[in-house]
Amino acid sequence: MSYNKLLMPFDEPKCIISVKAAGTITDGDIVAWESGTDCVGSDISTYATADIAVLKAATAWNGIGIAMQSTTSGLNVAVSLDGVFILPAGSTFVTANEDVVVAGYGNMVNGISDDASGLQTVFGRALTSATALTGFALVKLR
């Protein structure tokens, strides 16, 4: 597994989904919905895994979880939607007990102040602080 290691048994994820990979995904990647605003094409009786696809997150707006395994495009991947992970800090210092957003590169997170969290899509809450670009923080996914 890459440096984004799930801490177990500190906080075992309770919500892991299996979805289709829309590109190559490495375990520990922060992933995002591939289809954007597209609707799911099946109803509850004919649900198809292909209805929901993810790829490596590229912007601060679209991180939904962390890949629990590596896979190639078209195959299924397990994605944790909750839990506590070790994540590297991006270009912004991460402060304990404040929200973080996906940095949009290198599976990093950036810290944001509580008064700015309404302006961005919050990915999680930092449990520890981390120095920008060199530090790692414990992050609880939301």
Short key terms for the protein model shown above:
five-stranded mixed barrel, five-stranded antiparallel beta sheet, about 0% helix, single chain, mainly beta, about 140 residues
Description:
Helix content is 0%, strand content 32%. With 142 residues, it is mainly β. It folds into 2 domains: 16-80, no CATH class; 84-141, no CATH class. The strands form 2 sheets. A 5-stranded mixed beta barrel has the order 1-3-2-4-5. A 5-stranded antiparallel sheet has the order 6-10-9-7-8, with no helix packed on it. The radius of gyration is 15 Å and the shape is elongated.
Residue stretches low in confidence (pLDDT < 50, at least 5 long) are none
* Structural class category: mainly beta
Helix content: under 10%
Side by side, the strands of the main sheet go 1-3-2-4-5
Q: What percentage of the residues does DSSP assign to strands (E)?
A: 25-35%
Write the topology of this structure:
Elements lengths: L15 E6 L8 E4 L19 E4 L6 E5 L8 E5 L3 E5 L10 E4 L6 E3 L12 E3 L9 E6 L1
Parallel strand pairs: 1-3
Antiparallel strand pairs: 1-5, 2-3, 2-4, 4-5, 6-10, 7-8, 7-9, 9-10
